[in-house]
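Sample intake sheet
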Amino acid sequence: ARDINVASYVRRITERNDKIFVWGTEPAIYVMSDRLPVGKYSVAYHIIDFGKLPETYELLTSQKPRIIIVHEKEKYDFPQLNSLLISEYASVKRFDDMKIYLKVNNSEL
């Protein structure tokens, strides 16, 4: 139910062509929200296992997803993501242990 609620909320506050990013192990959110991920890796452990943290951070800063969803119990740390969330995003909603951040310092908004 949590992922369905997250996906429904994402659909309501984003446009169809907006990309999103989920830091966790919930790839179904992309499908249920009908939104594409930033980059080709849809789960945190793939980003970690394939050594793609720097590439993922670069994609986040260049593509500027409107929404970033963080599973607060994710066991992998992504310090650059934390910095990005602090400087460019605002926490707007929580569903259990999933926190949704909205881009605020975006010149397109």
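Comment: The mean pLDDT is 94. Strands lie at 20-23, 67-71, 89-95, 98-103.
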